[in-house]
Amino acid sequence: MKKLIKYAVFFVLIVILSIIYISYRNSIPLKDLPEVLSTITSPPMDEKYLDTYTTPAQKILDVLHYDINIDLFPADKIIKGDVIIKMVTKGLDKIDLNFYDNFKITKTLLNGKSVKYENKDTRFTILPEGKLGDTSLVEIAYEGKPKKAGFGSFNFEEKEGKPFIYTMNEPVYASTWFPCNDVPSDKALVDIKISNDSSDVSVSNGILVSVNKNGARKIYHWKTVYPIATYLVAFYSAAYHSFNDEYISSSKIKMPITYYVMPENLESAKSDFHIHAQAIGIYSKLFGEYPFIKEKYGIAEFLWNKGALENQTITGLGSQFISGQGFYKDLLLHELAHSWWGNAVTISDWKDIWLNEGFATYSVALYYEALSDKRALFSTMRGSSGDFEKGTLYNPSDEVFGKLIYDKGAWVLHMLRKEIGDDLFFKIIKKYYADYKYKNTTTKEFETVCESVSKKNLEYFFNQWVFKGTGIINAEVKTSVSKLDKGKYSVKVDIIQTQNGYPVYNFPLDINFTSENKENSVKTIYINKKSSQFELILDFNPANFEPDPDGWLLAKFSKK
Fold first, then answer.
1. Which residues belong to CATH 2.60.40.1730 in the chain?
2. Three-class SS of residue 442?
């Protein structure tokens, strides 16, 4: 009995200490975001899989518009769909789309006429008898139970006995529930009409055009006025309660911020979500105006227990991350930042995924810096360091949604800022956003923007941190001091790089020298050799030194 009492007291103590810590931090640490945002096993994302998922013809295909009509039948866990796709087909002799083969196809039309097709695995191919015109209209009607793939691509679930339906397309699972050209490089406009029981609210991307009753059912019609990649198309349908906020831009444009949550989470959500209007304003000053100002920003609660998903204008947030205590502030800020990085500026290829996740992760640190000062920036970044030895940032293979992409991606931007200076860095960020807003981009294109603004050749920087290098800087730093005339001191600094992931890193290094009576001086040197020696002159005899005192570098230094 005494043992049981002892264990109970210990357990209560741990709970109390945990609550105190979480309340003090008031948000999930940046270093934990990859674990919260990722799942236990990443979906297949290697080059071989993607090569079989798409065809060369899909790279040529240009979808202009999707008209998606989805009828939901949660009792039977089936959907009935009718999708009309307007596309540019010039130069093609067939149309390859992505669509899983488990549905019963009830209609396939090309420009209003029945057409032959093949549907195998994830490929849906339209086989016209004659030559395709410059533009084509394809209509596919189908019914059946969507397969669950990836993070959980289509979900018929329940909460407290009521249906709860939602989608999760990232990275290549839109095709589990509608036919599409499922590549991030083919952005299009979308109308989506969702039919469900009239007691449920159906939410999607863009603006709400209409809500129409059809007997015991309601049809919600949502529309995007900005192009969207298929992996960012989403809908949620449940017995939601909603509430609103408002963002007012610097030019006095008013935009709704709308939240959809289950009734038991309503008050907690109001407490947690109030940060968004202010955060949109901060990000807009840093990067450029919120990209979907004619639509909305919104959050919809869903039942995924791993975190959140940044679907365009309507982030999906797991129920357990609505705390009412602001515990997951960093998570909300990260997903909001994707409005700029991922949703407006969209990668051309999944090999460049760090441009989405690294930018969104660094945006959280920039938010805290904007609210406070550089100390907040450095403390936030210190929480997300690591060894990052599993692969390169570009084309990361099995690390697609791991710490490498989120955290090292953020650190690359942080180190780029140190390399070129604050003024140039923020000019680069604003120009990159302005140049590629509503378009697709690659790492090389980002590098080109960096070089054009900074007037520097940054090939070495991107090779060592993005394309070729693995791991981080490891270096031994040794100093020796000799006294000079007139109270001056000569400090010889020897630096030897010892890492295995990249032979020689080039980087600026601050060293803070301090005396016994707390005098200090920060000197900056530039390292571009495996072994380097410098002589620095100080006005005092240094008793100690600290390489990279603020924390600008992904590096481990050993002092000799």
1. 38-239
2. coil
